[in-house]
Amino acid sequence: QVRLVETGGGLVQPGGSLRPSCETSGFTLSLYTINWYRQAPGKERELVATSSRSDTGLNYADSVKGRFTASRDDRWNTVYLQMNNLKPEDTAVYYCNRAGGYWGQGTQVTVSS
Question: Radius of gyration of the chain from Cα atoms?
């Protein structure tokens, strides 16, 4: 059974950092691309970052380039999203996603002073 579980969100001040994790199970992580999406209240879900299988490629939305870094540890079946210099407009629920329509439950990130 494929599962994706996000943890590591929270409340942080502008300019701060967070590092959400996406723990996966039920499949071999090294064979799959994992995407990070976010959805802010009243807005559509937005693709933020992509971590390609075997770390062969990383892609980022223009709004987060230079601030967010996706990484993975296939030994621990976990994908990470290091978020630095956070801004209030980064406030959203962050989800990880795998091909086949698999989503986690999301983790809330709130950037506020």
Answer: 13
Q: String of b and e for 5-17 (b: at least 16 CB within 10 Å)?
A: ebebbeebeeeee
Distance CA 12, CA 30 (A): 31
| Kind of pairing between the strands at 68-73 and 58-60 | unpaired
The rounded distance, in Å, linking the Cα atoms of 9 and 21 is 9
Give which of 89, 53, 49 is closest to 69, Cα–Cα. 49
CA dihedral of residues 57, 58, 59, 62 (deg, nearest 10)? -140
pLDDT at 53: 77
Give whole-number Cα distances, 111 to 41, 66, 79, 89, in Å. Answer: 14, 18, 22, 8
- What's the confidence (pLDDT) of residue 55? 59
